[in-house]
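User: tokens in, sequence out, please.
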């Protein structure tokens, strides 16, 4: 059997989802025909399908030895490196290829996606533009353009692209949701009719209908129709929750265990952590202003925004695994192990893992809200790091979280009771951190920040050891891309219209108010 025939057989096995047989057949192909370069590319593609990106890197490197510089294979290498977590190498390879103009829309779009995952948004924009030029009747290319333009703060360009997407694909639920969030709708200018039509057509398609529901909730709220807004929000969140495998008690147990394990004696005396003072952690519940504070800080001349990094929790898990023993069955078990790690080494490895994106400025911001879980461990590992906690009215926080559609995080946010119980646990943990390590965290009250920003920002900069710079007041001029749920809002000047917004839904949010009222009073 020729190499091409063997490769065709591998592809047929892949099409039939017989991946084990396909890998064995591909191994035989490359063993018998080691000079057949396409066989190594096929092996790399197959390795990615079965989630073995390091194997994919080795295979594509072999193909590139036989045929150096082939753009399609260089793109495959970028994908493999990115999936393997080698962001530095993937970024370097992407920069080398970024000037290439692919001849097919598929390859240009794939490169755009790889660049987006590497946070190389201007480069991704060029590739998505190329894809749309080559296939001007494919709505997906225009959705990709709209999404990247949104990240870059180009609101009008994003609106134009998403409008074209919906002309071509009227039922694209992601496009409907993106469009709804790009501007404040009015009674005379909104998309509610087309959204209601899309909602009706999406019956029985849970993902599609849920996203259209969130878009409708946003637009109805914009025009002041709060009854219809919450009606669709409740439907969308219910559909979203039904598709999740989530056990709330595991999160609650983990938070309670943190309070039990991280006692005051851990923080008494000299803390032997890593001495690096670069990081500024911005923490809190989502939708409390963490992105806003990140933009304010990163508009300072000596501060860089590293975004929402999973780095600290990833390093914590690695260090816990070093201690051996059985793999924890539940997150609470990991908490017990974490106090036994070498705190100084954890801090050192965290800093190293943020390189080379960080280290070019005196400070960098890590604004992953969920780092509130690790505030105690962060202080033990990096005692000179700053920790900024965002504090917002509990009811406004819960409503803001409930109405947001997150991707892959915050599963507690789609059920009002689960959300309220999680908030209570969160607040109890924050109170605990402030008790066992008093004065470590700097609290920024969201309401104060948007009402009287200058004194709040002055206090924030002073805590971080930063001199005053007028640019911090003009955070909306920050040109760095933003991919968070607040990507549109952070381009605007400060506004106070979100304060007390939950009161438009007092009746619907009564279960939340009852849980917070009873438990927060009791815990205070």
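Assistant: Sequence out:
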């Amino acid at each position: 059997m020729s190499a091409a025939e063997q490769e065709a057989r591998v592809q047929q096995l892949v099409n039939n989802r017989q991946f084990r047989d396909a890998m064995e057949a591909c191994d035989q192909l490359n063993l018998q025909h080691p000079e057949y370069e396409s066989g190594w590319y096929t092996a790399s593609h197959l390795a990615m399908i079965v989630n073995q990106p390091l194997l994919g890197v080795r295979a594509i490197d072999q193909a590139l030895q036989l045929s150096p510089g082939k753009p399609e294979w260089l793109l495959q290498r970028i994908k493999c490196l990115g999936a393997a977590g080698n962001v530095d190498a993937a970024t370097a390879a992407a920069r080398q290829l970024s000037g290439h103009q692919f001849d097919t829309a598929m390859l240009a779009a794939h490169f755009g996606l790889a660049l987006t995952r590497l946070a190389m948004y201007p480069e991704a924009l060029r590739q998505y533009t190329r894809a749309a030029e080559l296939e001007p009747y494919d709505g997906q290319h225009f959705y990709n353009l709209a999404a990247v333009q949104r990240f870059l703060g180009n609101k009008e360009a994003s609106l134009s692209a998403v409008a074209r997407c919906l002309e071509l694909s009227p039922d694209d639920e992601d496009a409907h949701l993106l469009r709804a969030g790009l501007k404040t709708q009015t009674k005379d200018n909104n998309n509610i009719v087309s959204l209601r039509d899309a909602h009706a057509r999406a019956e029985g398609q849970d993902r599609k209908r849920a996203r259209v529901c969130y878009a409708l909730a946003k637009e109805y709220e914009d025009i002041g129709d709060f009854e219809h807004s919450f009606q669709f929000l409740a439907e969308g969140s219910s559909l979203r929750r039904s598709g999740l495998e989530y056990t709330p008690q595991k999160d609650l147990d983990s938070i309670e265990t943190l309070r039990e394990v991280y006692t005051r004696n851990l923080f008494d005396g000299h803390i032997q952590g890593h001495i690096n003072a670069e990081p500024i952690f911005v923490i809190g519940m989502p939708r409390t202003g963490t992105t806003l504070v990140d933009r304010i800080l990163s508009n300072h001349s000596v501060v860089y925004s590293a975004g929402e990094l999973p780095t600290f929790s990833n390093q914590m898990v690695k260090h816990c695994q070093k201690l051996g023993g059985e793999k924890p069955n539940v997150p609470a078990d990991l908490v017990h192990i974490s106090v036994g790690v070498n705190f100084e080494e954890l801090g050192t490895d965290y800093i190293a893992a943020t390189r080379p994106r960080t280290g070019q400025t005196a400070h960098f911001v890590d604004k992953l809200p969920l780092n509130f879980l690790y505030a105690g461990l962060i202080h033990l590992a990096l005692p000179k790091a700053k920790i900024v906690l965002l504090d917002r009215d509990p009811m406004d926080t819960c409503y803001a979280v409930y109405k947001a559609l997150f991707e892959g995080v915050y599963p507690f946010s789609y059920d009002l009771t689960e959300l309220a119980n999680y908030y209570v646990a969160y607040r109890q943990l924050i109170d605990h951190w402030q008790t066992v390590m008093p004065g470590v965290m700097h609290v920024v009250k969201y309401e104060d920040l948007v009402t009287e920003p200058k004194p709040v920002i002055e206090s924030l900069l002073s805590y971080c050891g930063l001199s005053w710079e007028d640019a911090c007041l003009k955070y909306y001029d920050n040109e760095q891309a933003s991919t968070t749920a607040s990507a549109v809002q952070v381009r605007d000047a400060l506004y106070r219209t979100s304060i007390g917004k939950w009161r438009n839904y007092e009746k619907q949010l009564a279960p939340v108010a009852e849980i917070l009222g009873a438990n927060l009073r009791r815990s205070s």
